[in-house]
Amino acid sequence: MVSKSHIEWTDSTWNPVTGCDKVSPGCKHCYAERMANRLHAMGQYRYRNKFKLTLQEDIVDAPLSWKKPRIIFVNSMSDLFHDNVPFKFIERVFATMINANQHIYQVLTKRSERLLEVAKDLPWTDNIWMGVSVENEDYTYRIDHLRDSPAKVKFLSLEPLLGPLKNLKLKNIDWAIVGGESGPGARPMDAQWARDIRDICIEQKVDFFFKQWGGVNKKKAGRELDGKFWNDMPDFSNNILIYKSNKNKEISRNV
Q: Are 253 and 11 a contacting pair, CB within 8 Å?
């Protein structure tokens, strides 16, 4: 439930909750559901319930024992703001993130309504980054909900990008991640959609991160946009973590 991650914009994943339900078109080919079913077939105890929402009570405190600072994607296999996650449990997760403040935490949700409902009752520190997923124009309201939250660092995961977002409003948003869908049945992403978002980010001075083109073979498709790697992230110079770029302009982390 705690592991190194191959996701380009994080170091590790921490899953105090597993399992979820589909709420919008971006969920159609959910990688987490595929992974959960595979792990269930392998006999992994954590996935005894397959992709049914499950609270993993025994690892809520896990980051407290990780001494080396890292960037942690919270609940890559679920959604912390799922309606069936009790508020008291969310409070426990936040308490861990605050007490283990040597790390940066990236929390991502599609359930922005619940985020907005409970956010005022949660403690927000600089090391807790809050994001929402937006796959097309129909779900840009999630950005408004995020904007109205007390989170100190706010980001967007525009992945899988399933349509243009030409009128993207990024006021009080710090970071935008763009990526195409990958895996079986992947729906294609138009290059102009990504370019438009990049240009909006540059114009509105928001950090832009291009994660991948996606497709059935995402490694072959690569992650360059117009011949360049776009790896911008919010400044966290007040934390111990430092980002560097290597000779190939890919990401390397010096922690």
A: yes
